[in-house]
Write a sequence for this structure.
């Protein structure tokens, strides 16, 4: 099987494809959950790829509207009203600071009115706060710098001071950022916690959700790591800090090999009073498993129970909500390519977890996110899905009649025996499912190559806005990103800045540029358009840790890294007797460790090894 996901095509090629069937737990004898045809339809603007469905009062009429954050090259947010009859109002837009992957409504300044905080997905990641002006319009009131490519946000009172704090997953910089609120909506990044640092740069933290997992009264965090097949649990501590994560690996099942984490939801699925994890896992095997990670009451998730399995497509969406009014949480999942939305009724008893056979809701193509909300004003929850490839949101009315009416026959899950193909080979890593999960996670409008720098105008061809590429790589356009290197090369070979940056330009860069970016123009403690900075030692310390600082531009993330890493004193580690002396800075070499003999520990299957190093 070979798969490629790109901005406009999602098709599957199989050399041999047999008829796809659905497998599920034997249903209990209860009435099926039933939804009507989707009569709520909200079409997004043409370039908008919705990533979430959220609620917020955008027009100030006292009623929640549907907000659709999304990947949009025009940098606009889509939203529409939810009419009293359950239909969607016309789509409206708000200009924002970039592509929005997530949004959260919360009163962050204590004035009694909620603000809408947007997660701006960018290499120079940031949060944007929208407040309602006196005119009634939503206006930008604050930009909060973050790290590389934030994708998800969770809220809670982490430090117990009565105001809302945030946790943000930064996908490309592989950590969770903790932002504590000073009480008036002035946030400070108090902690950056690495996610699965042992994985060598590919954990892929996508979603972060908050809840008290160990019943200690503090907010904890759950992060889904697409590249490592793990859920990372961050337990809250006094003062609003979080401990290093505890990881739980996805289990393997017969014919399901190394399934990947995609999206998930939190809730008390088994009715024992603590928070469990609903996880539709993505597999390249015969089935897509629906798994409940059961909480042991102390925040441990060693018990992973498969409650259902689907053949066809790839799992993605997840939602827990009580759709039949019986007091327990039912589940919604989605599959990409087959385009199914599946509703699973919770039939669990004291004897164990069980879900009935799923019903399928039609018309989806890539249901990326779900929202449970009463859109028609009756007494049950309806379902809205944000469809990233279809550029729309659909709403399905719950026909349960508040749990007491007659039920119509339900449709069976949709089965597709073939999909036309657009595919190229990809390099398979440890788990092909993780590769596909990361591709699906990136679906939508591409990230902008570089942030705007309106006040800085680089010279033609040379510089990050000159249209070239890295100075050490061949590319079709003339010039390269690093201005001093580009100037040096083009003074010798002018065609490199006029015609194309070919191999001779790269060769000249290797001899003329003295490390390509270090040193470069611009102070290390100030934002500037060139990659690198003028202090060679500081530049050499930061650029190996962040390719954006090395190959694109010196933005606020690079400045923050410089502030944290540069100016540190040399290593002060006491060298044991007999150890090899080394006068280099710690971050420039790998030595033999604290003694000549070292230490050896036998590793067994399932063991995790954690190491640490100094950078001082």
């Amino acid at each position: 099987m070979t798969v490629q996901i790109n901005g406009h095509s999602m098709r599957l090629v199989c050399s041999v494809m047999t008829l796809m069937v659905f497998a599920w737990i034997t249903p209990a004898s209860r009435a099926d959950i039933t939804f009507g045809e989707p009569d709520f339809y909200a079409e997004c603007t043409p370039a908008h790829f919705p990533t979430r469905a959220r609620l917020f009062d955008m027009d100030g009429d006292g009623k929640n509207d549907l907000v659709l954050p999304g990947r949009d090259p025009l940098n606009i947010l889509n939203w529409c009203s939810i009419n009293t009859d359950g239909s969607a109002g016309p789509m409206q837009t708000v200009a924002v600071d970039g592509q929005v992957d997530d949004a959260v409504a919360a009163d962050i300044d204590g004035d009694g009115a909620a603000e809408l905080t947007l997660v701006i997905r960018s290499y120079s990641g940031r949060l944007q706060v929208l407040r309602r002006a006196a005119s009634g319009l939503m206006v930008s009131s604050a930009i909060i710098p973050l790290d590389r490519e934030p994708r998800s946000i969770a809220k809670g009172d982490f430090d117990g001071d009565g105001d809302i704090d945030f946790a943000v997953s930064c996908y490309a910089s592989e950590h969770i950022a903790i932002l504590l609120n000073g009480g008036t909506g002035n946030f400070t990044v108090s902690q950056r916690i690495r996610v699965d640092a042992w994985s060598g740069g590919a954990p892929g933290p996508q979603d972060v959700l908050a809840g008290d997992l160990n019943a200690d009264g503090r907010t904890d965090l759950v992060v889904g790591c697409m590249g490592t097949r793990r859920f990372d649990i961050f337990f809250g501590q006094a003062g609003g800090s979080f401990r290093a994560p505890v990881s739980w690996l996805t289990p393997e099942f017969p014919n399901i090999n190394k399934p990947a984490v995609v999206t998930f939801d939190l809730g008390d699925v088994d009715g024992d009073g603590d928070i469990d994890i609903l996880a539709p896992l993505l597999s390249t095997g015969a089935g897509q498993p629906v798994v409940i990670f059961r909480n042991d009451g102390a925040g441990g998730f060693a018990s992973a129970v498969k409650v259902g399995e689907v053949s066809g497509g790839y799992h993605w969406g997840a939602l827990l909500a009580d759709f039949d009014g019986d007091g327990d949480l039912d589940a919604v999942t989605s599959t990409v390519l087959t385009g199914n939305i599946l509703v699973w009724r919770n039939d669990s008893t004291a004897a164990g977890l069980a879900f009935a056979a799923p019903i399928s809701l039609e018309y989806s193509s890539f249901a990326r996110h779900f929202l449970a909300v009463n859109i028609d004003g009756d007494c049950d929850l309806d379902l809205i899905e944000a469809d990233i490839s279809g550029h729309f949101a659909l709403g399905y009315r719950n026909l349960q009649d508040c749990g007491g009416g007659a039920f119509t026959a339900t449709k069976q899950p949709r089965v597709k025996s073939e999909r036309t193909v657009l595919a190229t080979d990809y390099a398979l890593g440890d788990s092909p499912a993780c590769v596909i999960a990361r591709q699906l996670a990136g679906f939508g409008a591409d990230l902008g190559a570089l942030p705007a720098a309106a006040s800085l105008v680089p010279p033609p061809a040379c510089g990050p806005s000159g249209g070239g590429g890295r100075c050490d790589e061949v590319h079709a356009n003339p010039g390269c990103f690093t201005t001093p290197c580009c100037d040096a090369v083009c003074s010798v070979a002018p065609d490199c800045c006029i015609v194309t940056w070919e191999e001779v330009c790269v060769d000249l860069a290797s001899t003329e540029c003295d490390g390509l970016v270090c040193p470069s123009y611009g102070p290390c403690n100030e934002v500037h358009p060139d990659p690198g900075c003028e202090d060679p030692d500081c530049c050499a310390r930061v650029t190996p840790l962040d390719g954006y600082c090395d190959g694109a531009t010196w933005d606020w993330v690079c400045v923050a890294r410089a502030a944290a890493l540069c100016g540190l004193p040399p290593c002060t580690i006491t060298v044991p007797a007999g150890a090899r002396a080394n006068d280099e800075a710690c971050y420039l070499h790998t030595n033999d460790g604290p003694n000549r003999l070292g230490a050896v520990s036998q590793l067994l299957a399932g063991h995790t090894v954690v190491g640490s190093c100094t950078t001082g």
User: Anything to note?
Assistant: The chain has a mean pLDDT of 81. The longest helix spans residues 432-441.
